[in-house]
Amino acid sequence: MRVALRRRSAPEPTHLTVLHDGTAFQVAIRRRAAARRITLRVSSATGEIVLTLPDRVPLAAAQTFADGHGGWIAARLARLPDRVAFEPGAVVPVRGVPHRILHRPGASGVTALATTPEGEPAIIVACGLPHVGRRVRDFLEAEARRDLAAAVARHARALGRSPKRLTVRDTRSRWGSCSATGQLNFSWRLILAPPHVLDYLAAHEVAHLAEMNHSDRFWAIVARLYPDLDVAEAWLKRHGSSLHRYG
């Protein structure tokens, strides 16, 4: 007796392709059971194009929707700032101050901040050319970890709490977080912002050691630790996304 085998349906693709004026855009597909309609967004941090749709919407309808927004996608991407690679001659902010990356292949020593004879702030990198980008990234992460550790320790003492651990990563969706176990995590990119912004984020996450929410009590703690929180929040809202263009 023969048993008919059911053909397995092919897995849904993870991306759609949208053509507009001769340019092909890759659009990531995200299905969400709670979604009520199709939405399209372009990440200001990464430039990723994401189409979110309810589970019940067929892929053909998603393609039609995306095709109809090709011009919108192109316009949003055109407004994103150009990316700045960590390479010799590039200008990168460190603690809010523009620094030029200067490559010194014949020198020895660690990557460091310096001032040129002309008075220009610089990041001096002594290594082979292929390693400049990694050296600059590692240096900035180390500087961020040092500044954040000092700020967290100061705010934690003021609050009478102690975090379990502090980590620094390249987070995209948030600048910092606090776990239920008291582990603090921050974006290394905060070292690119003015010091008061990093200080505020440290106070914000330390406050979560006492209040794991965003209640009025939480904000009262933040204001006690860092009174100028509105200034830092305004800076992040206006300039935060630009920090993702570096590296």
Molecular structure report:
The protein has 247 residues and is an alpha/beta fold. The protein folds into 2 domains: 15-79, no CATH class; 131-245, Zincin-like, CATH 3.30.2010. The chain contains 6 helices and 11 strands. The protein has a 4-stranded mixed β-sheet. Strands 5-6-8-7 form a 4-stranded mixed β-sheet, covered by helices on one side. Strands 9-11-10 form a 3-stranded mixed β-sheet, covered by helices on one side. A hairpin with a 6-residue loop joins strand 3 and strand 4 (49-53). Helix 3 packs across helix 4 (195-207) and helix 4 (195-207) packs across helix 6. The longest helix has 28 residues, at 132-159.
Compile the SSE list and pairings.
Layout: E1 15-20, E2 23-31, E3 39-42, E4 49-53, H1 59-67, H2 70-79, E5 91-94, E6 97-103, E7 112-115, E8 121-125, H3 132-159, E9 165-169, E10 176-178, E11 183-187, H4 195-207, H5 216-225, H6 229-239
Parallel strand pairs: 2-4, 6-8, 9-11
Antiparallel strand pairs: 1-2, 3-4, 5-6, 7-8, 10-11
Helix pairs in contact: 3-4, 4-5, 4-6
Question: Class of the largest domain in CATH?
Answer: Alpha Beta
Rg from C-alpha positions?
A: 23 Å
CATH architecture assignment of the largest domain: 2-Layer Sandwich
Helix content: 25-40%
Q: Which strand-content bin applies to the residues?
A: 15-25%
| Global mean pLDDT | 93
Number of domains: 2
Distance between the termini: 63 Å
Broad shape: globular
Please outline the major beta sheet: 4 strands, mixed
Q: SSE order, as H and E? A: EEEEHHEEEEHEEEHHH
**Number of DSSP strands?**
11
By CATH, the superfamily of the largest domain comes out as Metalloproteases ("zincins"), catalytic domain
SS-based class: alpha/beta
InterPro entries: UTP_pyrophosphatase-like, YgjP-like_metallopeptidase
Domain YgjP-like metallopeptidase: 36-239
Protein name: M48 family peptidase
Organism: Methylobacterium oryzihabitans
